[in-house]
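Input for the complex:
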Amino acid sequence: MPGFVIDAQGIEKSFGTLKAVDGVSLQVKAGECFGILGPNGAGKTTTIKMLHGAVQSDAGALRVLGRDVATQSRLIRAQMGVVSQEDTLDRDLTVYENLWVYAGFFSISKKASLSRIEYLLDFMQLREKWDSQIKTLSGGMKRRLHIARALIHEPKFLILDEPTTGLDPQARHLVWQRLRELKSQGLTILLTTHYMEEAAQMCDRIGIMDGGKFLLEGPPQTLVQEKVGDEVYELRGGVSEELLDSLQGLPVTAEVVADILYLYSHNGLGVMEHLISYGQKDFLRRPATLEDLFLRLTGRELRD
Amino acid sequence: MLFPQAPSHRAFRVWVRHLVYYRSFYLAEWAGNLGEHILWLVAFGYGLGRLVPSLDGISYAQFIGPGLMVSVAMWNATYESTYGAYSRMRIQNIYESMLMAPLTVGDIVLGDLLWCASRALIGSTLMLVVLSLFGLVGSLWAVAILPILFIEAVMFAALGLIATSLAHSFSFFNFYFSAIVMPMFFFAGTLFPIKGLPLWVERLSEALPLTHAVRISRGLFIYGYVENFIWHLSFLLGFTFLFLTVACVLVSRRMVE
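Predicted:
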């Protein structure tokens, strides 16, 4: 398909006086996985809802799968799967009914949907829940069913809003594993998440969002290297002024948070030798991660 | 596209969803409906009816028969489009999930209204069965009431959906029921004739959509003939179209920010 799966140019959305999305531009190619990271209230969900037409933009241009969202949202949704953050499964219906009724919304007949449903329930490890009521499913099963439902019409593009929030580690790993499989099959994916490392592994590119804008966007490893460094040293339990002063001139960035000193470095060994020569032996040395970048960009204060 | 939220044939898929759910409890509902219908007919038609002299040459039970059919359609359509639709729209997020599929707000509204009307029609048909068991049906034309009741039910479902799109909690429906539905029920000539009441009551009654459904039904039920049929039907269709349009606009405003 020519062009981009998502092509957003300066889209905006206000709710009253709150500017939820404030000039977002984003381009995602076919087959790409793009992750939106950001603290609560950053505008992630509003951006996602704009993509499937549940929220209409006030300004800017937004095309998805080559079509204009403002006028052709219905046709876009026919080729797109959406996994929303809240539970929107039909609690009045069984697992199987949920899927074939939803297939009907895509004008797929009950009969034609059967083999797809069998495949998806196997894929999501829900086969034995075929006739179960939704209320008997665990949180992880519900989320997997949600994803299965979003895939019922073999979409070209899948949107997931926090697909793993609230899941236990086992369930989370299964979801990420399945998403990686879908990605390797060529599906274009856009997701939001709070699990930085998983996003770093899975996404070709990420965008860090805050205050309705992208602060930064690019391949996760490149971003971490450029903006944070290779390594992080964590020194806990109080740090002397003397040590802090001595760090001036070294290729490190220091950040004090409560009783922890973080040193972000591009030249790990030099820093380590320096610390040891100052008698500081109790420190944690680890590779720099996306979470370091995230916290440095969006700050450490709580958002809720 | 001029109206991106306009309804289409896909409304049928929404109707199917409601039918699938209905399959899980319809027998209990039918039993309950039948019991309730018999109770109303016995209590009012025969209990209260003993005190009522014959009206225009027909018994009181026969007089209220079509009135009960019409009001059953109104009550069923109203319950389903208020409590039922509010739950689907605001609590269970079913509308939201439909809008993530290629359905429009118009599809969802029309599908819901057709469903409310279908359910109302089942209730009224059961009432017709009860009435015929009691030997109260005067003309075979009574069966022709059913399509009229379907239109009436779509109209009340649309009105209910308007209330639902304005409601911020279930308690709003208390107001809607006591301010709109109850007065409609009493002053449309369902349980007693309006003729002879003060003039302003007569005029008010003429303006109520339910009155026109009652007139058509009573005519068909007892005589197989309706005076001013076209006028009554136009009144029903006009309000149905009006309420349907307003419901689409208001639900759109509620669902698409």
